[in-house]
Specification:
417 residues; Alpha-Beta Plaits; nine-stranded mixed β-sheet; 11 helices; binds (2S)-amino(hydroxy)ethanoic acid; binds manganese (II) ion
């Protein structure tokens, strides 16, 4: 193994500066919110492509709005090791979830470029445009487009203002009839490796800066709509009410109680609820809410979803409500490829850190990329395990550790035999 040349600059400092620069691009002045096919999406894409070009990469926006950077190998046209993560956020997000993987990968390529180092394979860095799925119900849109598994019916999906994805893509300057152009062939990729914050408390509890991911937990998302009867808050006796919000509340507590009795790491979340007509003195006639169910084991998750739906149906019947419930997103648990995971572990060890393996409870673009490449992930510790929250934070030394391990992985990478 070639003697390691320490990075010419502190990669950690460059990473932190760029994380903060990207965080400043938000639709809200007082929090970080960057949503698919918005002016903020466009501004973030331009900033990231500029960093990619500074790092010696050719950079472009693909047919669905992913930012794609390529650093050629020893000769043009070689298959690539793809790195990356997503650059969209949840609402009122932290600044590290997603961008850390893109910015760290660019920093590593920049270091190779500064040293004039070329590899026997190409390196690509992809910034996925919509991993969180905040604007339209479906998620992983960018990585599914690259994997060739984008579901064209999603183009008909509407955001909360009633704009269809189809029109939103046109308004953004993309051609919704040609999303397929983003698809890559499996032969073009040697593997996909994503660096990401852990978004949980385990690495901090273990006092470790990095962790090797074993699998990405599967998830099921559902959209629920309960209908009762709106009425006057002052005149309708309690026994005669068909209160959709009280019914939703009973469903939500039932979901929490069901998941709280631990079943192999089962978790359930109701993250969004909307009650109509939404006036203090009107009994809610209609409520819509979302459900997110996850487990490291797909069988448990599927059984849990069936049990939860059954409980909701019982509550709805007893309260004389009507129910519409649809699965809006379903992803199987994705195992990391042992041969690639082993190289992540070797890079962790080579950089002097203890190898610790852990599953990911959070979803990632690797759940879509698995359809065209073997995947592996490297986790970086985040303070308090906090994520999807403005207090999300990574210490500079941990950002540096993640970059050193990723750079080592890249320079020692061996394609699958
Ligand atoms: O929901 C998730 O697990 C990811 O943050 N999109
Ligand atoms: Mn996230
Ligand atoms: Mn993420």
């Amino acid at each position: 193994m070639e003697a390691k040349v320490a990075p010419a600059v502190s990669l950690g400092a460059e990473i932190v500066d760029r994380i903060n620069a990207l965080a400043a691009i938000s639709e809200m002045p007082d929090n970080i919110t960057r949503i698919f096919l918005t002016p903020e999406h466009r501004a973030a894409a331009e900033l990231i492509m500029g960093w990619m070009r500074d790092a010696g990469m050719a950079a472009h926006l693909d047919a669905i709005g992913n930012v794609c950077g390529r650093y050629e190998g020893e000769r043009p046209g070689l298959p690539c090791l793809m790195l990356g993560s997503h650059y969209d956020t949840v609402r009122d997000a932290g600044r590290w979830d997603g961008p850390l993987g893109i910015i760290t990968a660019i920093a590593c390529v920049g270091d190779l470029h500064r040293r004039g180092k070329k590899l026997p394979f190409a390196l690509e860095v992809t910034g996925f445009a919509d991993e969180e799925g905040v604007r339209f119900a479906s998620t992983l849109l960018g990585s599914r487009a690259i994997a060739g598994t984008f579901d064209e019916s999603a183009l008909g999906g509407k955001d909360k203002t009633g704009i269809r994805m189809y029109e939103a893509m046109r308004a953004f300057g993309l051609d919704p009839d040609h999303v397929g152009a983003a698809a890559r062939a499996p032969s073009e990729l040697l593997g996909y490796v994503e660096l990401h914050i852990e978004q949980g408390p385990v690495l901090e509890a273990k006092k470790l800066p990095v962790g090797v991911v074993t699998a990405i937990a599967g998830a099921t998302r559902l959209a629920v709509e309960l209908r009762g009867m709106a009425g006057h808050a002052g005149t309708v006796p309690m026994a005669l009410r068909r209160d959709a919000l009280a019914g939703a509340a009973e469903c939500i507590v039932a979901i929490e109680e069901f998941c709280a009795t631990d079943r192999d790491g089962l978790v359930g979340t109701v993250g969004y609820i909307n009650a109509m007509p939404g006036a203090t003195n009107v009994i809610p006639g209609m409520v819509s809410f979302t459900i997110d169910i996850r487990s490291p084991r797909d069988s448990y998750r599927k059984l849990a979803v069936a049990d939860i739906v059954r409980q909701i149906e019982e509550i709805v019947k007893r309260r004389h409500l009507t129910l519409e419930i649809n699965v809006t997103h379903e992803n199987r648990t994705v195992p990391c490829a042992p041969w690639l995971q082993k190289q992540v572990a070797e890079a962790v060890k080579a950089e002097g850190y203890r190898v610790f393996e852990l599953p990911s409870g959070a979803g990632h673009d690797g759940m879509a990329m698995i359809d065209i490449a073997d995947v592996a992930m490297l986790f970086v510790r985040c303070r308090g395990g906090i994520s999807h929250h403005p207090d999300e934070h990574v210490d500079l030394t941990d950002a540096e550790a993640g970059a050193r391990v990723l750079l080592r992985l890249i320079e020692d990478f061996k394609a699958k035999g």
